[in-house]
Design goal:
- The chain is of the alpha/beta class.
- Helices cover 37% and strands 18% of the residues.
- Strands 15-16-14-13-17-18-20-19 form an 8-stranded mixed β-sheet.
């Protein structure tokens, strides 16, 4: 189940099935453009965001036929909503609107009508007509609000102010019409607080649905010309996901989310250049929210306490307890035990005790999981009582901390987990642990410290391939001090190859008396030649499945030679 109300699920509850949107361009134009097509909002392309699947259609009838055929063929769609998408759907005389809408609705038994328009293009006559039409079919007005900050609206040449948008929503509701608002995240000079203020203003106005758009710079727009003259910051996949997730927590849970991100044809997009597919981005947002135990509206609505189910657990040989991971079909730790792995592999091979006897130590743990490695490191620092250990711990799954509290045996370990779960920090006389709850590839870009020791626990490498790629090891190398050491619980040969190519000397550190396997890596001063291929993740966003798939393709190609 998604941690937010998708429009698809909203439609299932309302219509009993999902309606596929059929976009139509009526060529009504826009009140904010000149007759020759110039002007308009700085972000808007000349074609007014016309849908790609109808781009070459010669008539509205052909547009509808092409779009329905496309939807049936690609998505097995059976029920449809008509969407007046490009430009401004109400920028025409009332006579023209009535004639056009009635003609379109006669072409197919649509179950809903979505009209895309602007706040400053809604006459009383149009509102009365749409209200009348809503007695026959569901009518939803999709309103381009974009921002509720007048300075931003002026900068993007929107042609109206925030008060106009709020008044339009009020007038539409007064006629019994539903309003879906469009909001752009990432406009130049806007801050996260400003995005939140715009969202809260729309929520308070009672919007019935929302489309989020991350700012795109599209070719042949005024924004593109501005960007060429003076480039401004745009949000990466990870940055936008963080912003979006936070905003979703301020959207009441009954409001459907129609869109998570902008969808621009690659040939027209100047920036930002994402390398995460639309589907992968949606999965990433949903998974991140689940891992953090958050959901739409949870910061503004009373929440019922939910007891997290504890995964299947097992007691290991050394008295520690671990969980079964249903996704990867394996246990988190070796049979020898989590304490044993922490002591014999991570602590011993990093020589952490000797480092702490000489001075303060800085440790980075990637794949914090149930926290055994950091707990043993903290316990060591406290027992030595000489110098201070600072730990930066990274894990995408925050809820695992809460589940682990109920099964780990040591009171100090429980205290550590509880503190990290509630406030992301644990501190004692000789140790401090800071928990960074993010996907590791993104989290590593947020760190600026240099580390004496790096612990890396990729669990099952082929399923967490993003943690053992050449590019990820190159990023880790930049964070390791010259005399630092990296210890990883991986025995995969492809990981050793990637480490070598990233500039590490690698030594196998398997425990011959148990099932504990690992490697130790230190910075190399030589450049070895390696002919085998490591895992690759060139943009730092590929899914684990794709990383593994691309790796397999390379070997398949080599086998055919």
């Amino acid at each position: 189940m998604l941690p937010y109300l998708s429009h698809k699920n909203f439609m299932l509850s309302r219509y009993g099935e999902a309606l596929f949107s059929i976009p139509v361009n009526l060529e009504f134009g826009c009140p904010n453009r000149e007759r020759d097509g110039s002007g308009g909002c700085s972000f808007c392309p000349e074609h007014g965001a016309r849908a790609a699947q109808i781009a070459d259609a010669k008539s509205v009838e052909e547009q509808i036929q092409k779009a329905i055929s496309f939807a049936k063929r690609r998505y097995k769609a059976s029920s449809f909503a008509l969407y007046i998408q490009a430009y401004t759907g109400t920028f025409a005389s009332l006579v023209t609107q009535k004639k056009t809408y009635e003609k379109l609705l006669s072409l197919y038994p649509f179950r809903a009508l979505h009209v895309g328009t602007r706040p400053d293009c809604l006459s009383e006559a149009t509102l009365d007509y749409l209200s009348e039409l809503s007695q026959k079919i569901d009518v939803i007005v999709e309103l381009g609000v974009q921002s509720l900050h007048d300075a931003s609206l002026k900068q993007i040449n929107r042609g109206h102010d925030a008060a106009c948008s709020l008044d339009a929503i009020k007038r539409l509701h007064g006629k019994g019409l539903k309003v879906y608002a469009h909001l752009i995240i990432g406009l130049p000079n806007e801050t996260p607080d400003m995005w939140k203020e715009s969202l809260q203003g729309l929520v308070e106005a009672g919007i019935d649905g929302i489309k989020f758009h991350n700012l795109h710079v599209i070719e042949k727009t005024d924004l593109a010309r501005e960007y060429a003259q003076k480039p401004f910051s745009l949000l990466s996949e990870y940055e936008y996901a963080e912003a979006l997730i936070e905003l979703l927590r301020y959207v009441p849970s009954h409001i459907p989310i129609l869109r998570l991100a902008t969808d621009t044809p690659e040939r027209e997009l100047i920036a930002p250049k994402w390398h995460m597919s639309k589907g992968q981005f949606g999965e990433y947002v949903a998974q991140t929210m689940r891992y953090r135990g958050i959901q739409q509206g949870d910061l503004i609505e009373p929440q019922q306490h939910k007891s997290d189910g504890i995964p299947q657990k097992i007691d290991l040989n050394d008295g520690s307890t671990t969980f079964w991971n249903e996704t990867y079909r394996d246990y988190y730790h070796p049979k020898a035990g989590a304490y044993t792995q922490a002591q014999r592999l991570f602590l011993a091979k990093s020589d952490l005790k000797a480092r702490l006897e000489k001075g303060d130590g800085h440790l980075l743990e990637i794949g914090f999981g149930m926290g055994y490695n950091s707990f043993c490191a903290v316990e060591l620092a406290q027992k030595l009582g000489k110098n201070r250990l600072h730990v930066n711990a990274i894990d995408h799954d925050r809820m695992l901390l809460n589940q682990s509290v109920r099964v780990v045996p040591e009171p100090l370990h429980v205290k550590l987990l509880e503190s990290l779960f509630t406030c992301k920090t644990y501190e004692s006389a000789f140790a401090k642990v800071e928990f960074l709850n993010a996907e590791a590839r993104y989290a590593i870009t947020l760190l600026h410290e240099m580390f004496d020791v790096i612990f890396l626990d990729p669990f099952i490498e082929s399923n967490n391939a993003s943690l053992v790629t050449l590019e990820f090891f190159q990023a880790l190398r930049k964070r390791l001090k010259p005399d630092g050491i990296l210890v990883a619980s991986t025995a995969l040969h492809v990981s050793q190859i990637a480490l070598n190519l990233a500039g590490f000397d690698v030594h196998i550190a398997n425990d011959t008396t148990s099932d504990i396997k690992g490697i130790v890596a230190t910075l190399s001063h030589s450049n070895g030649l390696h002919v085998k291929e490591p895992y690759r993740d060139p943009y730092g966003v590929w899914s684990d499945k794709r990383i593994e798939s691309e790796h397999q393709k390379i070997f398949a190609c080599k086998d055919k030679r």
